[in-house]
Amino acid sequence: MYKRRRVVGTALGAALATALLPGISLVLDSPPLELLLPVAVFLIVNQLIHTYPGTVRSAAPIALLALGALGVLQDTLIWLLVSWLGSRMDYGVHVDGFLAALLGGVIVRATVLVCLALGPQPVPEAS
């Protein structure tokens, strides 16, 4: 359930960032299909480099801030990677610069954290 919320939050965040920010635009103007590239790259990288707290509601504030800042940096670099891949493939999204990528990273990370905070939290495993 927790993983599904991360997937939904990532897809929703990428769509929101593309819709809200003028610096992030679609290459071919076919929104549902072109959002597959950024969402797939976000999901793959976020699975490889896991920067989410175990439980959002019971995490210490300093842990949320540290992981949030690291996550925004990670998501900013992913937006730049997606833009580079899109320019090579003539498909996906185009990001105008670092500021647009940074704002896109903030939107994606905030959306994922909100989705993780909603609903039941995972039960910590007893060791």
Largest sheet: 2 strands, antiparallel
Which of globular, elongated, flat, extended, rod-shaped describes the shape? Answer: elongated
What are the low-pLDDT stretches, counting only 5+ consecutive residues below 50? none
Strand content: under 5%
Task: Tell me the strand order in the biggest sheet.
Answer: 1-2
Number of helices: 5
Roughly how many Å apart are the termini? 22 Å
Average pLDDT reading: 83
Rg from Cα: 15 Å
- Topology order in helix (H) and strand (E) letters: HEHHHEH
Q: Could you say which structural class the secondary elements and strand pairing correspond to? A: mainly alpha
Overall helicity: 55-70%
- The total tally of domains equals 1
Number of strands: 2
Keywords: Membrane, Transmembrane, Transmembrane helix
Protein name: Integral membrane protein
Organism: Streptomyces plumbiresistens
Transmembrane segments: 64-86, 98-119
Account of the 3D structure:
Pfam families: Phage_holin_4_2 (PF04020). The chain crosses the membrane at residues 64-86, 98-119. This protein has 127 residues and is mainly alpha-helical. It has one domain (2-117). Helix content is 67%, strand content 5%. It is built from five helices and two strands, in the order H-E-H-H-H-E-H. The protein has helices spanning 2-20, 31-34, 36-48, 61-89, 98-117, and strands spanning 24-26, 93-95. It has a two-stranded antiparallel ribbon. Helix 3 (36-48) crosses helix 4 and helix 4 crosses helix 5. The longest helix is centred in the middle third of the chain and has 29 residues, at 61-89. The two termini are 22 Å apart.
